[in-house]
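Changelog note: in this version the structure field was regenerated for every chain. One regenerated record is shown below for reference.
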Amino acid sequence: MTYWLTYFLGLEFLYTDKGILMHQRKYTIDMVKWFKMMDCNHIITHSELNSRKEETKDEEKMDHTHYKQLIGSVRYHCNSRLDLSFVVGVASRHMHEPRKSHLIAAKRILIYLKGAKDLGILFPKNTNEKMDELIGYCDSDWCDNKSERMSTTGYLFKLARALISWCSKKQPVVALSSLK
């Protein structure tokens, strides 16, 4: 008898004709229920365009425990959703002193996940393509964080058309010059 992996640590695996889809549908639904946001309408983007949450010292402070729970829950989605890596990383920078605008941005990510709960990573079946083809992409926002003057860098790697590694990270040092 053959047993297929279907659910493991909040990750679900769906076997299709195209390959194996890894997603977190059940975890997303449970999380939306936990934070009492089932009645919210879903949205199609996880963040507002050109939104900056840098200078918010005059805003009302929020409960940091609730914010940490929300960010931690959303961060777990980065295991199967590379589109969240950047926005969750930015939201995580404010866990020590979250303000109202930070909480609104974090809840927006959760509402987005509610509507996009069936999305995930596809590990395609073997095709006639080369199985040893490694493709990598890298990008930087070139010091978009104006308050700290640091860049955020992201990368992803695919092996045989399957996504195998990705990251979005604030660089630890300030770049003093660049080549163009």
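Spot check on this record: The helical segments are 25-34, 64-75, 85-92, 100-115. Strands lie at 7-8, 11-15, 19-23, 120-124, 134-140, 152-159, 162-170.
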